Amino acid sequence: MFTNHLTNFIYSDTFANNLTFAIEIMGTLAFALAGIVVAARKRLDIVGVSMVCGLSAFGGGTLRDILLDRRPFFWVEHHQWLWVILALCIAAMLFLRKKHIELTEKSIQIPDALGLAMFTISGTQITLASGSPLLVSVLMGVMTAIFGGVLRDIACNEIPQAFSDHRPYAVIAFAGSWIYLAIEHFSNNDWLASIFAFLVIVTLRMLAIKFDWTIPSWASK
Amino acid sequence: MFTNHLTNFIYSDTFANNLTFAIEIMGTLAFALAGIVVAARKRLDIVGVSMVCGLSAFGGGTLRDILLDRRPFFWVEHHQWLWVILALCIAAMLFLRKKHIELTEKSIQIPDALGLAMFTISGTQITLASGSPLLVSVLMGVMTAIFGGVLRDIACNEIPQAFSDHRPYAVIAFAGSWIYLAIEHFSNNDWLASIFAFLVIVTLRMLAIKFDWTIPSWASK
Amino acid sequence: MFTNHLTNFIYSDTFANNLTFAIEIMGTLAFALAGIVVAARKRLDIVGVSMVCGLSAFGGGTLRDILLDRRPFFWVEHHQWLWVILALCIAAMLFLRKKHIELTEKSIQIPDALGLAMFTISGTQITLASGSPLLVSVLMGVMTAIFGGVLRDIACNEIPQAFSDHRPYAVIAFAGSWIYLAIEHFSNNDWLASIFAFLVIVTLRMLAIKFDWTIPSWASK
Q1: What is the pTM of this model?
Q2: B212 contacts: CB under 8 Å, gap ≥ 6
Q3: Are C208 and C191 in contact (CB under 8 A)?
Q4: Contacts by residues C95-100 (CB-CB < 8 Å, ≥ 24 positions apart)
Q5: pLDDT: is B102 or B7 the higher one?
Q6: Residues 76-115 of B with CB under 8 A from C
Q7: How far, in Å, CA of B76 to CA of A137, rounded?
Q8: Average pLDDT value for residue range C23-42
Q9: Helical pair A46-68 and C46-68, crossing angle rounded to 10 deg
Q10: b (16+ CB within 10 A) / e for B197-206
Q11: Eight-state DSSP code of residue A217
Q12: Per-residue DSSP letters for B137-202?
């Protein structure tokens, strides 16, 4: 009886929506904090910190929506989160010391992995639903997840970390997005495909950090 | 009688439109010249100077219009101004010497402040009219005013000045945009709100330059 | 009789379309290889190489389509070419050695000139057909041809080569685009105008490389 209720609840739209939204927010906050860390290293002012933080948090999804011609953007529909970002930036400037930066980077690893997985899958779903081909959907999923960070680094006059650190990040998102599409295709169960791909991306990403995996580099000089 | 005529004229749409357009052009030219100054420091060629000048002059409004899905852009509707920009760039390459650069920077401070005020307010108005929430309208107003310069600096491989110089520029635009919204809300008089916010932004900006104001930096190392 | 057939064939839509598409692909591949060369110099990882390569190949046309609000993008409509780009990037990382880079740059000069001509003209045509004024159409033609490279260089944290190398590249595209418009206006023959402007751009570009032409720089210090 209880299990039955629980099962119904877990499969209910309310639960799924709330869970999705909670993970989305965790991911967005992790991306925002990553933006603050990069901006802090460059000693930007409050305008720079806020803009870089906003780019980092919302840039990927906004770029996807511009490419797909979708409106409203996340930060327009859920504009109260702009206040959160702004408060976060002011708090960071008041309380974040250099010794905290490494700590912050460490503590956002898990929410960042959740964000990576969530934005990859939702980006893939949204692009596929707009009638795009498979590879385009996968690439848009990956871009949704990584282009916030790419725009953050470009605005801070750095080569994007996602393009140059030889760590599996976008590569895991790419694989996870294909796994999502494969399961969705064979099982016709979007929920199952999402959960499974989500777990694969998060697990691989955590393993990649723990065991310091690198991706193959140029074959030679 | 004469005062009556003058009052009618000042409140007439023609006068308001002409004044608005004149200030818009002054601001655009100031932004264009700021672009030429940055491009000159980097010794770009005529292509780079023109593109950076164009980005600086029209980048903020174009980004706003892309985000809001508005067409046509200013530089498409008023395409004759592209010729002016082009002529300005060629003239700069022929006649601008290094010793003129500082002079140019100084002489564009006032039109630049007019542009800051004008584009902040018009950006806020346009975004609000598209049905966006208040904070989104304020941020879009600020972005309209500063993102020309941000794109200019990114194209010149510099950290955007608006993000890093610790001077009140975007911060004044931010405050001015809220002042506009507050007066508009309480008086229901768009004309009054625009004029007042405009004067506040221009005055604060001129004071900031005169007294060399800075905005608070990171609390500590 | 045979000549008649040949003439019919050359003037047929099938032939024109196939030829156009073949040149477009050659140009795209040249731009893609130019992206790989820049990414290789920066030792980016496979994610960076693919993204910079993609930006270089499709960035100009995508920016044009965003500005004109056109969909679908080339890389969505012809998504199989994304696989080619991806395979090219993987092959480059496996087989491209430093000593090959200069060779690659040399061997893409001709297809790059074809791409420059093709994208300038098609960009001009598309913008004009959307009802834009002449100068806007010319500038959009130039931007279609050069902004892939501009975005490539920005993503690699370099001042865009097209803005700073004092070589006639965008300038030739600019001239060629006006030549296209002039012939189209006077002859009312789009096919003739395209062919002629195409040949002018390619010829001038090859001459510019051969004789190491430069464009005028700043008049003085």
Answers
A1: 0.93
A2: none
A3: no
A4: C95/A219, C96/A218, C96/A219, C96/C36, C96/C40, C97/A219, C97/A220, C97/A221, C98/A221, C98/C40
A5: B102
A6: 76, 79, 82-83, 93-98
A7: 32
A8: 94
A9: 70
A10: bbebbbebbe
A11: -
A12: HHHHHHHHHHHHHHHHHHHTTS--HHHHS--SSHHHHHHHHHHHHHHHHHH--HHHHHHHHHHHHH
State the DSSP string of A80-149: HHHHHHHHHHHHHHHH--HHHHHHHHHHTHHHHHHHHHHHHHHHHHHHHHTT--HHHHHHHHHHHHHHHH
* pLDDT confidence tier of residue B2, bands split at 50, 70 and 90: low
The pLDDT assigned to A221 comes to 59
- Give contacts of B89 with chain C, Cβ < 8 Å: none
Cis (ω within 30 of 0) for the bond into B72? yes
CA pair distance C137, C146, nearest whole angstrom: 14
Task: Please state, in angstroms and rounded to a whole number, the distance separating the CA atoms of residues B31 and A201.
Answer: 45
Evaluate whether A176 touches A119 at the Cβ level (below 8 Å). Answer: no
Give the three-class secondary structure for A159.
coil
Between chains, do B162 and A48 touch, taking CB under 8 Å as contact? yes
Is residue B121 a contact partner of residue B141, using CB atoms and an 8 Å limit?
Answer: yes
- Between CA A92 and CA A36 the distance in angstroms is 7
Q: Least CA distance to A152: which residue of chain C? A: C155
Residue A168 clears pLDDT 70, i.e. is over it:
yes
In A, minimum Cα distance to B158 occurs at: A157
Torsion angle, alpha carbons of C165, C171, C173, C174, to 10? 150
The chains in contact with chain B, meaning 3 or more Cβ pairs closer than 8 Å, are A, C
User: For chain C, how long is the longest CA-to-CA vector?
Assistant: 66
C residues 130-159 closer than 8 Å to B (CB): 132-133, 135-136, 139, 146, 150, 154, 157-159
C-alpha B147/C-alpha A43 separation (Å) is 20
Please choose, from the candidates C39, C118, C147, C33, the residue with its C-alpha nearest in 3D space to the C-alpha of residue C84.
C33
* CB contacts, 8 Å: A170 with chain C: 47
Q: Smallest Cα–Cα separation from B24: which of B126, B170, B159?
A: B126
How high is the ipTM of this complex?
0.92
Structure tokens of B3?
């005062």
> Best interface-test mutation with B: which of A76, A85, A100, A153 has the largest number of B CBs within 10 A?
A76
The contacts of residue A139 (CB under 8 Å, 6+ apart) are C82
Please tell me the distance in Å from A185's CA to the nearest CA on chain B.
34
